[in-house]
Amino acid sequence: MGGALNQPAALRYSAVVKDYEKSHLGRVTRTRALDGLDLEVRAGEIYGLLGLNGNGKTTTMKLALGLLRPSAGEISVFGRLPGSAESLCDVGYLPELPYFYPYLSPREALRFYGALSGLVSEDLDGLVGPALEKVGLTAAADRKIGEFSKGMLQRLGLAQAILHRPRLVLLDEPVSGLDPLAVHDVRGLLRALNEEGCSLLMASHSISDVERLCARVGILVNGRLARVVEQAEWAGESGQLERIFVETVRPARGGR
Amino acid sequence: MRNAALLAANTWRELTRTRFVPLIVLFGAVLIYLGMLLGVLAGDVEDRVLLDVGMAVIELMTCSAVAYCAATGLLQEMEQKTLYLILSRPVGRPAYLVGRFLGAFSAAATAAVAMTAALAVMLLCKGGLEAGPLLLSLWGVLLKAFVTAGAATFLALISTSVLSAMTMTGIVWVLGHFVGEIRFLAQRTGSASAVLLVPVTWLLPNFSLLNYRDRLHAAGGGLSEPLLAGMLYAVLYAAVCMGLTSAVFRRKEF
């Protein structure tokens, strides 16, 4: 980890504000999704993002990809602008519900997304098979995605996110819809990715998974980073992270 | 350009695998076959009627297909969120638009070529196939489809639904065939409101420039200049549409 200190942060948010604007009959309404977010994912770490629904987790991820633009503040991905071709080459993204073209097979989908990520045919030949194997989809590699269950889509989502060997992977609810065995496998896969040097930002409602995987956890409350918890604060005491989370979130919800 | 080509190929694959293109071809072929009934009524000019009706069907089917593909493709990708996995990769937004546009056009062009081949076979069986006018008509249809794809892509992006995008494209397509007439009537009436219509007609595609077979009969065969001018016009019109679409799309958030 010592070398990581000299590297630029994998992902940095500085005083980021994001307002969503909706216009109806000339009247504009603004909703603040992020309010002065300061967050840093260090190179080589697994950072967890916890928060209630609508507290800005997905917005945080989309800003790093350039799918959304900040209303104020700055974001950098390995020191580069989010959404630029250079930064996107280094990033993998698993959306909360990965949407695929139903007429493709997983093999075709991975070849397509891999090619869009800049991989050439020879690379794809060597990467697609192992990626399908890692997520346990080898047997279904040539079936139509339209026939897949939610869990299988999630596995394929993970495969497309890591196929091009990104340095940073953004995971929005990575274990959502998976059965217990698949959750176990995905955890192992994410750990292995991290051991290879990949940084991970993982938003989840599953505190136990965050607890097992992450080195640090940020708790978002109403679009603000209310608290950053280091692994040492919860390690060795079962349920400690959950207690910290509830203590942080409850006051903001009026004690409920 | 590589990403645009990949996206175009994927759009083409989508439209053929979802059986959209085969269905268009089948439906067009059935209509062309039914056109034979009109041919029977035409007496001495049966071949001419078959060609006219056949090419009219092909144009209508091709332009409807391209309008549908261009209008639905973009809106569906936004609605179904398949766009996330594309724009979260190093794919420029203009490249994405060009890919979708070229994919929609190439799928419709494939259908047009297949339907024209069916018509050619029918004319050949009747012993009245003239390759020149048929190919000329096909070229005009392809250019119209190119222009329609550009207009539909732009209209889809500023629309709120597939239905409104398709409706607007349909209106533009119909008015585009009467640009000359609209200008003539506006000037003849001389009223201020009618004259104000004239600048608006410059925004519409002028499809009469691409009706090559009409020109073949009018010009007595001298077509190299209109062919080139028509092609340039179609490319320029579609490029302007795509430029405007790109400017709007660049500002969009997902």
Would you mind describing this structure in some detail?
The complex is a heterodimer of chains A (256) and B (254). Chain A is α/β, with parallel strands linked by helices. Chain A folds into two domains: 2-90 and 166-252, Rossmann fold; 97-165, no CATH class. Helix content of chain A is 36%, strand content 27%. Chain A has a six-stranded mixed beta sheet, sandwiched between helices. In chain A, strand 6 (168-172), helix 6 and strand 7 form a beta-alpha-beta unit. In chain A, helix 3 (106-116) crosses helix 4 (121-134). Chain B has 254 residues and is mainly alpha-helical. Chain B has one domain (2-250). Chain B is 82% helix and 0% strand. Chain B has eleven helices and no strands. In chain B, helix 6 (131-157) crosses helix 7.
Helix content of chain A: 25-40%
For the largest beta-sheet of chain B, the strand count, sense and barrel status come to:
none
Rg of Cα set of chain A: 19 Å
Q: Write down the domain tally of chain A.
A: 2
Quote the average pLDDT of chain B.
Answer: 88
Strand content of chain B: under 5%
- Provide the number of structural domains of chain B: 1
Give the CA-based shape of chain B. Answer: globular
Mean pLDDT of chain A: 91
Distance between the ends of chain B: 23 Å
What level of helicity do the residues of chain B show? over 70%
What general outline of chain A do the C-alpha atoms trace? globular
Unreliable spans of chain A: none
Biggest pleated sheet of chain A: 6 strands, mixed
- CATH fold group of the largest domain in chain A: Rossmann fold
What is the element string of chain B, with H for helices and E for strands?
Answer: HHHHHHHHHHH
Cross-sheet strand order for the largest sheet of chain A: 5-6-7-3-8-9
With helices defined by DSSP (H or I, 4 residues minimum), what is the helix count of chain A?
Answer: 9
Cα separation of the termini of chain A: 40 Å
